[in-house]
Design a protein that fits this description.
Layout (H helix, E strand, L loop, with lengths): L1 H35 L13 H29 L15
Helix pairs in contact: 1-2
Length: 93
């Protein structure tokens, strides 16, 4: 159990957070350029494209925050301050 918790925390630091930060770094200029020129679709009455392009850096930033939350929970479980629960609860209908 502890090896699994440790591997999740380490892999979060080594893989999840760096790739999220890299993707935010590369998608932010793509969004800002689209916002600066007020890019819109070429169709008649075309919709703006920059709100959709904003979803990429915001999504990766939120995924990084969720990763930080999971890493904190795993570290707390390793030092026995938090007990993780893995049982499945069937939905009530």
């Amino acid at each position: 159990l502890f090896a699994n918790l440790r591997s999740v925390a380490v892999s979060g630091f080594l893989f999840l957070l760096p790739i999220c930060l890299i993707l935010v770094y590369f998608t932010w200029p793509w969004f800002t350029e689209s916002w600066r020129i007020n890019e819109s679709s070429s169709n008649a009455g075309g919709l703006l494209r920059w709100p959709v392009k904003l979803l990429l850096p915001v999504g990766f930033a939120l995924m990084a925050l969720q990763g930080i939350s999971e890493i904190i929970k795993r570290i707390e479980a390793l030092v026995h301050h938090h007990r993780l629960q893995y049982q499945y609860e069937t939905p009530l209908q």
